[in-house]
Design goal:
The protein has a single domain, classed as Four Helix Bundle (Hemerythrin (Met), subunit A), CATH 1.20.120. It is built from 5 helices and no strands. The protein is an all-alpha fold.
Length: about 140
Amino acid sequence: MLKGLVSLSLSLVFLSSGTIVLAAESGYVARSNLMQNIRSEFSVLARMAQEKIQFDESLAESTRLTLLNLAASAPTIFEDNELPINSEALPAIWENWEDFVSKSEDFEFALEGIETSTLIDLRSSLGNVGATCGSCHQKYRMK
């Protein structure tokens, strides 16, 4: 009986320490996944604008909406300031949190302004999105 309790206790210790490690990694992983997803979705619109893929109004609009959802989650996902060695995020994000959140809101606003009804509209509205990405990455991302 005592041997069983000791085994159970040790198992719980190892499980909880593994959970702590996973929790510490989850902030970075979530941020990395978010940025990869934004990049992937935005590339659909950029390739359409460049006529590398055929313009599709429905796909453009659904991509815009997906980007809006991703962008809205950025401040929450970036709250965890854990910075592993392979992170591209700079500590300046958390040192200038209000500015970071403001830039995130600017990104959302630019995404709301994307026009998806025609190829010409799409092309003319993507520049603002790129500018908001750049303003944040210049200040808060390792080069």
